[in-house]
Design goal:
binds uridine-diphosphate-N-acetylglucosamine; alpha/beta; Rossmann fold; six-stranded parallel β-sheet; binds uridine-5'-diphosphate; 2 domains; globular
Length: about 375
């Protein structure tokens, strides 16, 4: 029996192909939702869009300081695992839910599989970096998306026999949903946007949005790109970012903001954008899968493959640099860069990562 632990927007999206694969193979599985994300547009909207059943358990831990949140998830997951005794627990990514889920399972001597293992920003001030390092080190199966993540794990002394290069399930999710999204979503019409004629922006990293100066620089940078190139900007605002912008008194004026949108609408927004500006991990991957240029609002990335393939550049949280990099990317893509690329050219796999992951767990 497989237990899938998830708790935030990207985990629901990236675990959805794993859940589908368990169903396709008729494998006994159940889902624990930590409740780290709980607002409709950060949680239930994705179960609806992805046509997933409600989780078997919801721990409803909600928001809080990382210690409190992690502890509540650890204790809640442990209780369920003791009762259900699964053979394997799967966690995905780098959130507090991942850290707690992996820790609960490993202390009960239940096999742990870490989906999206081996990513490293080499910046331990990021809570996500600590979560990744701990989860990888206590996992029995490290499902590395790329050769680079595989090498990071080897360099940390993780046993080669525990590491499997599977690709990233984000590709499976895009392949499974892009066509459905194009058929179903009317988001461009609803928001009055024209294909390839708008910028798509998101930001939510703690180190960016919890810092007044950095958040101001990011919002100013997005406005500057929009003004300079006369391209409207759309910004679905993460609840953390909304809270901090309100607290700091920073205005989004000049940018078209919305609440976070569902996955199908988001895929349409992203695949038709002229340029993506983001500090999200998933967006860096998706823009490179869908062939859309991306400017990352960070100084480093744990996804160097996106930069190496030419679809992503790092601009930090500096308005002038954001503007400069955006200009360079717009020019490069207007000259035809990426025109010959197709969905299958991306560095994150062939859309069959979940099949490999589930097969390895069952072997
Ligand atoms: C978390 C992850 C981050 C991931 C992101 C995905 C950690 C340390 N961080 O960051 O790695 O990229 O999820 O989006 O695990 N809030 C709501 N409704 C919600 C969820 C959050 O209003 O459904 C607000 C609350 O004010 C909360 C704040 O957002 O305090 C931050 O939420 P939290 O889950 O702590 O971190 P994220 O920034 O979402
Ligand atoms: N996403 C979405 N709606 C939004 C913003 C993002 O569906 O309004 C999706 C996006 O397609 C990607 C994922 O959410 O798959 C990224 O989540 P997030 O940026 O919150 O987290 P990260 O990837 O940085 O951990």
């Amino acid at each position: 029996m497989i237990c899938i632990v998830l708790g935030t927007r990207p985990e629901i999206i990236k675990m959805s192909p794993v859940i589908r694969e368990c169903e396709r193979k008729d494998i006994d599985y159940f889902v624990i939702h930590s409740g780290q994300h709980y607002s409709y547009e950060m949680d239930k909207a994705f179960f609806e869009d992805l046509n997933l059943s409600d989780p078997d358990y919801n721990l409803d831990v909600g928001s809080g300081n990382q210690g409190e949140q992690t502890a509540k998830i650890l204790s809640g997951v442990e209780e369920v695992l003791i009762k259900k005794k699964p053979d394997c627990v799967l966690v995905q990514g780098d959130t507090n839910t991942v850290l707690a889920g992996a820790l609960a399972a490993s202390k009960l001597h239940i096999k742990v599989g870490h989906v999206e293992a081996g990513l490293r920003s080499f910046d331990r001030r990021m809570p996500e970096e600590i979560n990744r390092i701990v989860a990888d080190n206590i996992s029995d199966y490290c499902f590395a998306p790329t050769k680079n993540s595989y090498n990071n794990l080897l360099h940390e002394g993780i046993d080669e026999g525990k590491i499997f290069i599977t690709g990233n399930t984000v590709v499976d999710a895009v392949f499974q949903n892009l066509e459905i999204a194009s058929d179903k979503s009317s988001v461009l019409k609803r928001l009055g946007l024209k294909n390839k004629n708008y910028l798509l922006a998101t930001a939510h990293r703690a180190e960016n949005v919890d810092n007044k100066e950095k958040l101001y620089e990011i919002i100013s940078g997005i406005k500057a790109v929009s003004d300079e190139y006369s391209i409207p900007a759309i910004f679905p605002v993460h609840p953390r970012t909304k809270k901090m912008a309100d607290e700091f008194g920073i205005s989004f004026e000049g940018i078209n903001i919305t609440k976070p949108v569902g996955y199908l609408d988001f895929l349409v927004l992203e695949s038709n954008a002229r340029l993506v500006l983001t500090d999200s991990g998933g967006l860096q991957e998706e823009s490179c899968i869908m062939g859309v240029p991306c400017v990352t609002l960070r100084d480093n990335t744990e996804r160097p493959e996106t930069v190496e393939c030419g679809f992503n550049v790092l601009a930090g949280a500096d308005s002038k640099k954001i503007s400069l990099m955006a200009g360079q990317m717009l020019k490069k893509f207007e000259s035809g860069f990426g025109n010959a690329c197709s969905l299958s050219d991306n560095p994150f796999g062939d859309g069959k990562s979940s099949e490999r992951i589930v097969d390895i767990c069952q072997s």
